[in-house]
Amino acid sequence: MFSGIVEELGTIKSVHSYDHTPYVRLRIEAKRVLCSARKGDSIAVNGVCLTVIRFSFFRSNFDVEVLQSSLEKTTLASLSQGDRVNLESSLRIGDRLGGHFVQGHVENTGKILQIQEQAAISSKGREVNRYFSIGLDQHLMRYMIAEGSVALDGISLTIAKKNQDSIEVNIIPHTFAHTVLCQKKEGDLVNVEADMFVKYLAELGKHGFNHDFNSNSESKSESKKKEGK
Fold this sequence. Notes:
Helices cover 20% and strands 40% of the residues. The chain has 229 residues and is of the alpha+beta class. It has two domains: 82 residues, Beta Barrel (Elongation Factor Tu (Ef-tu), domain 3), CATH 2.40.30.20; 98 residues, Elongation Factor Tu (Ef-tu), domain 3, CATH 2.40.30.20. A six-stranded antiparallel beta barrel has the order 1-2-5-4-3-6. It is globular. The termini are far apart.
């Protein structure tokens, strides 16, 4: 489990695929996320939850393996040596939740349709806010709620506006400068994970959760009455 607050930008040092194996191995250079990491820990790479399988001798790099299923529905298959990636360590009990609950289970990719810049004056001087318009398929759109949360490349963001087949998010200067969004351009893809709570509620509603819950409660009540007799 993650919070969608990117800790650092890592660098892809190598990408290896092997014959007759359904995965690709990535070697990633990092610093902050490796301070307390152990083999077997989870690290989100551009929003995808991956397991650390190996460290370099000086703990400056770590290896992860990406299964075919993840390669097919994320942008990780397009990574190459030198690319930067968002990195976040998994949450520990007692950690501050700065964003929202992110599982690292990317459903699909979205396409950057438009990037609009808006200048603003702050105590730091002239800064630029950016509005990203992200095109999504209808499966993901059903989980999008205006003012709700979404994770794009592992970044916890608030949905500023929901359109028929796209959403808009506001990227503040700090987020833009410290994540892979600073390298993105119109037409690029981003990994998308919908808010887990919205997904659960949608799934429960689809199966008539309210009816089943009420029926179950009534059954328990009747059982208690019979036991009381």
